[in-house]
Design a protein that fits this description.
With about 325 residues, the chain is an alpha/beta fold. It has 8 helices and 15 strands. The chain folds into 2 domains: about 110 residues, no CATH class; about 180 residues, 3-Layer(aba) Sandwich (Rossmann fold).
Length: about 325
């Protein structure tokens, strides 16, 4: 769905854009788009003090908030939009999720199948990050996401696992110890259900319809239950601290699921970057990929992702 004409407001780090009224499923609404404008795509709580809604708000209709931003910014915007008929938050994996309403047309928890594709002509790529446990998959996934984000703001990182290691754990301050991180992970760890991987597969496909690239962290075990996720992806990257584990991931991702290999990384505890070959896929040794460490992604890997997976403009 293409956005209608817009009006906007700008603070030092936040750009709010409000569309003209539009309709979907007989619901009249405006789209409030959030964009973080600093080079590092960050904002601070102090930015809330000067934040103003764009002019032209129609309180008789609904508002759909969309964009990558902190949870506390969304909470602030929902409060500021209280006079409108209803407010929904856009989740690219689901649609517009109703979070508050003052009318009979919608109810809280209802999902309107809105799709903000912005005219993308094809499915974006989906890169599956795989390898055995304790090789650095989650750290690499997050570091690659952060490295691409400044130039490709519509890249998305999907955690298709239930081990409790979300982005927020990797972004804890330097004062957080390894024991702190493990305690947080254990507190939020889930369990495998019959619906988990089918749900993740549908989420990845929905994201690919709207994003240039989806990075998928799927955990460290070869499991047949993961097949729906593999079928929803286009490429894979193996990162392994054990060379004898790589073959089974090639069999699982390439031979069984016909995914294309982007790279094989030997994970090292030493600070090293060594390229072994570039074709038919990038093969290298690099590291260390440890939680809490500031790890730049090797330029050769970023270049490989940009060349092979991101659309040329």
């Amino acid at each position: 769905m293409k956005p209608a004409a817009m009006v906007s407001t700008l603070t030092s780090n936040v750009h709010l854009t409000l569309s003209e009224p539009q309709t979907i499923d007989n619901l009249r609404f405006q789209l409030l788009s959030v964009a973080l404008t600093s080079l590092d795509r960050l904002m601070t709580p102090a930015d809330l003090r000067s934040l103003q809604l764009p002019p032209g708000l129609d309180p008789t209709g609904g508002i759909v908030i969309s964009g990558r931003a902190p949870i506390w910014l969304y909470a602030h915007l929902v409060h500021e939009l209280h006079p409108t008929a209803w407010v929904a938050c856009y989740d690219p994996r689901l649609g517009a999720v109703m979070v508050t309403t003052h009318c009979q047309q919608v109810r809280v928890g209802q999902v309107v199948p809105l799709q903000l594709s912005y005219g993308k002509p094809r499915l974006g790529s989906a890169l599956l990050i795989v390898g055995p446990p304790d090789s650095g998959k989650s750290v690499l996934s997050h570091a690659l996401f952060q490295a691409l984000l400044p130039d490709f703001p519509d890249v998305f990182l999907q955690r298709a696992q239930w081990d409790g290691e979300g982005n927020w754990i990797l972004e804890l301050p330097d004062t957080a110890t390894h024991a702190d991180r493990e305690a947080f992970k254990l507190a939020y760890k889930g369990e495998l259900t019959d619906t988990f991987y089918p749900y993740q597969a549908q989420a990845i496909l929905q994201l690919r319809r709207q994003k240039s690239l989806v990075i998928v962290d799927v955990g460290g075990k070869v499991q047949p239950e993961k097949q729906p996720v593999l079928e929803a992806c286009s490429h894979y990257l193996v990162i392994s601290s054990k060379s004898d584990e790589v073959k089974k991931w090639h069999e699982f991702c390439c031979d069984r699921s016909n995914l294309r290999c982007l790279s094989v990384i030997t994970s090292s505890l030493d600070k090293i970057t060594t390229v072994h070959r570039r074709a038919p896929f990038l093969e290298m040794t690099c590291g260390p990929w440890l939680s809490g460490a500031s790890i730049p992604v090797p330029e050769v890997l970023v270049e490989q992702v940009m060349t092979q997976l991101l659309p040329r403009t």
